[in-house]
Amino acid sequence: MNTHPTSGGPVECWELDQIHASPESWFLYFIYFAPKDPRIIVKKRLGGLGWTLNFARPLAIPTLLALIAVLVGAFTLAATWDLSQSAQLGVAFVIIFALVIFCRWMANPQRYCK
Predict the structure, then answer these.
(1) Residue 28 belongs to what domain range?
(2) How far apart are the first and last CA of the chain?
(3) Nearest Cα to 43, choosing from 95, 110, 93?
């Protein structure tokens, strides 16, 4: 369980919702910067459109670089294998599915709430 960065206590779910909904947490409408939100990956402002990073968190840039490295590395590795085009497409779907599950897990506010 993470704690509130300013008070040191556990974060309330309603508090995360308020922080996420606040226009002050969004720079140019799509860059999320909320120091009070302990999450690194959050849902985008318009629900259902994916995730974004909380650039106020120190691990945001390393997380972005790690996700890019995993994608590039996995696709490069799959391309070097002697696979048919349909098998390469299957590997791509598995990689993307795994990243979607990871982002959903990281963005889940229940991981950070009391």
Answers:
(1) 13-111
(2) 8
(3) 110
Write the pLDDT tens digit of every residue in 55-82.
999 999 999 999 999 889 888 887 888 8
- Do the beta carbons of residue 91 and residue 82 sit within 8 Å? no
Q: How far apart are CA 17 and CA 107, in angstroms?
A: 12
- Supply φ then ψ for residue 17, to 5 degrees: -65, -40
Range with the poorest average pLDDT among 24-28, 29-33, 75-79: 75-79
Q: Are 20 and 44 in contact (CB under 8 A)?
A: no
The verdict on residue 8 lying in a domain is: no
Q: What is the widest separation between alpha-carbon atoms in the chain?
A: 55
Q: What is the pTM of this model?
A: 0.80
Residues β-bridged to residue 31: 27
- Cα 114 to Cα 100: distance, rounded to the nearest angstrom: 25
CA distance 5 to 20: 15
Domain count, the chain: 1
